[in-house]
Amino acid sequence: MRILLAGSKGQVGSALIPVLAPLGDVSAFDRQGLDLADSNSIRAVIQREKPGVIVNAAAYTAVDRAETERDASFAVNATAVRVMAEEAKRLDALLIHFSTDYVFDGEKRTPYVESDVPAPLSVYGRSKLEGERAIAASGCRHFIFRTSWVYGPSGRNFVHAILAAATSKPELRVVDDQRGAPTSSGAIAGAVAQVLSIPELSNKPGGIYHLSAAGETTWHGFATAILQAKGLKTPVAAIGSDEYPVAARRPKNSLLDNAKIGATFGIALPDWRQSLAAVLAVIH
Ligand SMILES: NC(=O)c1ccc[n+]([C@@H]2O[C@H](COP(=O)([O-])OP(=O)(O)OC[C@H]3O[C@@H](n4cnc5c(N)ncnc54)[C@H](OP(=O)(O)O)[C@@H]3O)[C@@H](O)[C@H]2O)c1
């Protein structure tokens, strides 16, 4: 199996490299090797590599900056995804792509299922939704894994931000009115490898699957758990989203219902606390 991985230096991309390697012949591209802002280069690289599986872990993920960089966000999260999907269709390759809880407005009280109607609150969410729709419209074989609150041992993420702030500030103030499931890049990558290892994968229904850690918390709960695990005593005040102004609105409820991926693939990610412990064990 020839696997083309885009976004190899991102959180999910870098976690995918070691788990994809045993499954086939992996060509991994970072932004320098494959710039998603350049449609011609996407087409050229895919036509040259002729992969059987394309895994797109690249994305424009600067949620707040996207509010003023709409074109850049849509170029990577929508246009590039459409081009990849068209090339996948041409090659009859499988496209694996990632999307986000931010396609929803967060007004639902219970976890979101795949058939819930998206209503993104932000430019980033709209750009990711357009990417999802472009994949479906292309007719290529695909799995889109919507995940949430991604963190890992490396990269810019909440865990690193909290650890840095806890050692430089007397007190932290963290939002307590957004619910979600922090999901580790390693858990996501493991699930993708599990899916690709299924012998009769072509018999499984393509489409969107929710893939997030079990359990739930708030950003405040997540921050508190990080500090507790590291033995840091910096106080963490719980604040409302209105006390922490940012450019992009976030959903109040980011919870994803993972029943479909469980029923289809037998995949159930561990509780977020378990994965957090594993990631913190390798962050010093
Ligand atoms: N992070 C989250 O909390 C979160 C939540 C839900 C869903 N997701 C989704 O999960 C997937 C993986 O996210 P992640 O957290 O691993 O993101 P990430 O760490 O920000 O990695 C994204 C990667 O995409 C690359 N990239 C950006 N623009 C590019 C371009 N024009 N050409 C080529 N590569 C480009 C980045 O390269 P540079 O480093 O050079 O910029 C980076 O390596 C994405 O689809 C994201 O939308 C993420």
Oligomer type: single chain
Low-confidence stretches: none
Bound small-molecule species: NADP nicotinamide-adenine-dinucleotide phosphate
**Number of helical segments with 4 or more residues:** 9
Main structural class? alpha/beta
Distance between the termini: 37 Å
Q: Sheet bearing the most strands, described? A: 6 strands, parallel
Number of DSSP strands? 12
Give the amount of beta strand, in percent: 15-25%
Strand order of the largest sheet: 2-1-3-4-5-10
**Radius of gyration of CA atoms, rounded to a whole number:** 18 Å
Helix content: 25-40%
Note the run of SSEs as H and E: EHEHEHEHEEHEEEHEEHEHH
Per the principal axes of the C-alpha atoms, what is the gross shape?
globular
Mean pLDDT: 97
